[in-house]
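Technical annex, item 7. During the second reporting period the consortium partners agreed on a shared format for inverse folding records so that results from different sites could be compared directly. Each record opens with the tokenized structure and is followed by the designed sequence. A conforming record, contributed by the partner at site C, is shown below for reference.
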């Protein structure tokens, strides 16, 4: 019965106990027996368990018998827990009617708590607030309940206080889900519309689409159509998660399940797309679909050139499960053959790097991340570039526009000053401030993305002793006085070390980079000049002194002319070596740009 279905998700800041609460709900409803229970059941990747953050969304169906004896079908959709995956979170929220908002009793309201809460309110979800980790010695459940209550406009005494780790008060949440979250609204006789809120690739069944059927029903042998990509397919299998994949004959409106599409590419089955029946198609797709746009770009190169094909295979396999990862081949004079890849954010980039190194056992080098710039040319055309090496000649450029982000920082009021100083140093602009709770302030800024991706979050955490939290989203492209900072080693440009910087910062960054490189590049048998060039002129230079080889060691005694002859010969040899010699640039030089502001 449709009236007995409840679709809900759990939203929280990173490490507030979302996955642990999901574990307890699975255990209490008997979906997983105690014998099969492991920590963080829905987090299947080792990386998710280590970092305490959900990376891939997942779903599970539970059966719960209420106190009145009625049996309910509860569909839990576990959302990703990081700001980089904001689009995936928004699709998962659209597949639900309610959300459990989990707040840590010792940490209180944080940036992503608010960001996810506002997204859930925008999606018209029924919110059930929960205070978790009340068993911790540092927990302040009553104070946090006051803050959450004032945020939602409800009495703090109505907020459930639980310990997911110890299983305390979990049954109360199940009763609240049944009572407060509405059953899915279903329009009888409407054509099929099902929302894809996530997908993964299976070697045998192709792309598995995670779907919420909004209208109509899905039957096993029928042909289905993706409305945005116009791809038709006949499902290999349809089923539900309990929590493993369990085939069923049909999925009705209001239900959550999966479709094994048999498709070979996640690109044909995109998150947010609508599935319909081609024989009686829906007039329009469900709202909110867009193609995930990469925000951060970096070069990926194998340390050993022989691993190039293995790296391409690894990226192809990762791409099967992650449609938001984009890459294409790229060649660098310094690093050889590699790939230019686009990521949703720095966290997404870190995850991909760790997966390449762990799952495929490849030793890879990631160049310093950059962002996508809009370049307005003299002929009126706009060029999108994500690598400094692609920047055209200065005399062809009218202006360069860079992406700016709206950022919200939530922090105890004591750290107001250090945060203000950090954001000003990073070219940020203050917008407004709010006080979501006593002694906590939400600071809203607009900051260039290029300043955010290099060490901003680490510096924010160190300046606030770990108490501040941050959330960000794209605001606009803005023109600014930007120029290319090039590095020349031995007179040759090293494309992989180039960067796009603000003209006020060019001199300082150039000098610091040259100083850093001088200590990293090993000494050769000849003097090596390292130069930084910006705006058509050399702005900094340093020499790596040659190692001296004592050619006179074998000349003991004898005529001075013999010694002079040997020294002259060495001088000519060094001159020739400097002309044709190749300077090996170590790996750490390419990441030195990331650490310029740490010192």
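Designed sequence (site C submission):
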């Amino acid at each position: 019965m449709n009236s007995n279905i409840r679709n809900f998700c759990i939203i929280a800041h990173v490490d507030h106990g979302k996955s642990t609460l999901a574990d307890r709900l699975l255990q209490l409803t008997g979906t997983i027996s105690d014998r099969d229970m492991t920590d963080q059941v829905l987090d299947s990747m080792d990386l998710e368990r280590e970092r305490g953050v959900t990376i891939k969304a997942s779903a599970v169906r539970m059966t719960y018998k209420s106190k009145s004896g009625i049996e309910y079908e509860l569909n839990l959709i576990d959302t990703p827990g990081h700001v980089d995956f904001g689009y995936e979170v928004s699709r998962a929220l659209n597949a639900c009617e309610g959300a459990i908002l989990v707040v840590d009793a010792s940490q209180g309201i944080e940036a992503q708590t608010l960001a996810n809460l506002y997204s859930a309110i925008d999606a018209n979800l029924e919110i059930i607030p929960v205070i978790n980790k009340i068993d911790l010695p540092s927990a302040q459940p009553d104070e946090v309940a006051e803050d959450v209550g004032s945020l939602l406009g409800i009495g703090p005494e109505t907020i459930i206080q639980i310990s997911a780790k110890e299983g305390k008060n979990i049954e109360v949440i199940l009763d609240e889900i049944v009572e407060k979250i509405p059953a899915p609204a279903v329009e009888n006789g409407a054509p099929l519309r099902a929302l894809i809120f996530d997908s993964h690739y299976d070697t045998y069944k192709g792309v598995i689409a995670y779907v919420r059927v909004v209208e109509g029903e899905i039957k096993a042998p029928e042909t289905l159509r993706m409305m945005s990509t116009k791809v038709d397919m006949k499902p290999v299998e349809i089923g539900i998660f309990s929590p493993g994949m369990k085939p069923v004959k049909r999925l009705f409106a209001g239900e959550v399940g999966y479709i094994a599409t048999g498709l070979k590419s996640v690109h044909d089955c995109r998150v947010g797309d609508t599935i319909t029946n081609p024989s009686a198609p829906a007039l329009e797709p469900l709202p909110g679909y867009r193609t995930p746009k990469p925000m951060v770009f970096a070069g990926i190169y194998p340390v050993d050139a022989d691993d190039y094909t293995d790296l391409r295979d690894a990226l192809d396999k990762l791409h099967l499960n992650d449609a938001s990862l984009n890459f294409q081949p790229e060649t660098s004079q310094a690093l050889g053959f590699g790939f230019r890849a686009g990521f949703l954010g720095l966290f997404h980039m870190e995850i991909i790097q760790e997966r390449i190194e762990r799952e495929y056992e490849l030793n890879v080098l990631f160049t310093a991340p950059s962002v996508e710039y809009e370049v307005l040319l003299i002929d009126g055309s706009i060029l999108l570039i994500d690598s400094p090496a692609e920047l055209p000649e200065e005399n062809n450029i009218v202006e360069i526009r860079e992406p700016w982000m709206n950022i919200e920082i939530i922090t105890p009021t004591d750290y107001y000053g250090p945060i203000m100083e950090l954001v000003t140093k990073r070219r940020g602009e203050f917008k407004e401030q709010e006080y979501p709770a006593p002694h906590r302030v939400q600071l809203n800024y607009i900051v260039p993305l290029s300043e955010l991706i290099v060490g901003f979050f680490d510096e924010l955490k160190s300046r606030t002793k770990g108490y501040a939290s941050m959330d960000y989203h794209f605001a606009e492209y803005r023109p600014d006085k930007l120029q290319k900072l090039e590095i020349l080693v031995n007179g040759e440009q090293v494309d992989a070390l180039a960067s796009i910087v603000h003209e006020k910062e060019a001199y300082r960054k150039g000098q610091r980079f040259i100083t850093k490189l001088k200590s990293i590049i090993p000494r050769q048998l000849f003097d090596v000049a390292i130069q930084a060039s910006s705006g058509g002129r050399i702005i900094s230079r340093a020499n790596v002194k040659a190692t001296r080889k004592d050619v006179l060691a074998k000349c003991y005694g004898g005529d001075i002319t013999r010694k002079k002859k040997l020294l002259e010969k060495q001088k000519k040899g060094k001159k020739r070596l400097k002309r044709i010699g190749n300077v090996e640039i170590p790996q750490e030089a390419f990441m030195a740009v990331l650490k310029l502001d740490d010192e």
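The first helix runs from residue 18 to 28. Residues 128 and 176 are 8 Å apart (CA to CA). All partners now use this format for quarterly exchanges.
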